[in-house]
Amino acid sequence: MAHGIIGRLASLELPLWQVLLLGGAAFLIGRRAQTGSALEPEPEPKPEPKSEPDSLAPTTREHLRLARREGTKLVLVVRTDLAMGGAEVAAQCAQATLECYRQAQQAAPGVLGVWGHEGQAKVTVKCRGEDEIARLEVRAREAGLVAHLSASSSGSARTVLGVGPGPISVINSVTGSLKLY
Q1: pLDDT tens per residue, range 37-84
Q2: How many CA atoms does the CB half-sphere of 38 hold within 13 Å?
Q3: Neighbouring C-beta atoms of residue 141, cutoff 10 Å
Q4: pTM reported for the whole predicted model
Q5: Cα 49 to the center of its chain, rounded Å
Q6: Which CATH number fits the domain 56-175, given the four candidates 3.40.50.300, 1.10.760.10, 3.90.1150.10, 3.40.1490.10?
Q7: Which of 10, 76, 114, 145 has its CA 20 to 30 A from that of 83?
Q8: Peptide bond preceding 165 in cis form (omega within 30 of 0)
Q9: Mean predicted confidence (pLDDT) in 135-150
């Protein structure tokens, strides 16, 4: 039957404008059947909220200015005195990264946006023990950076400190002396 209809349509001699008009009408009818409205526009993606520097705290405003100028990164500080296996280190680093991201959504959305736009640079460094990682957390918070200290699954040991995302110079002022993991 379809071949018969196509054959009949092919034998008709219609001007091009009529073919285009009929094709457009068929398209709109089909679209209306699918969506409920023939002329309903496609939904536009919502723009990402822009953080207004005037509404930010002075430290956050300065961090956003620096982030735009010099770039951003997130540093993961891993304790080496615990002799964690590779899977445990990876899990703790993932947890610290996720918690830093969540905190940055609230505390530093502009810096988080710059970090996301630049490819989310992450650097893993090592520290010697719990005292050092605790001091680094305090220094990070004093510098106005997002910081999260992850604990082992048993909760008995603090294992990985996430610092940032933040401006490279500010993060380096806290973690720049540490060696790569």
Answers
A1: 445 555 555 444 444 444 456 678 899 999 999 999 999 999 999 989
A2: 7
A3: 13
A4: 0.69
A5: 13
A6: 3.40.1490.10
A7: 145
A8: yes
A9: 96
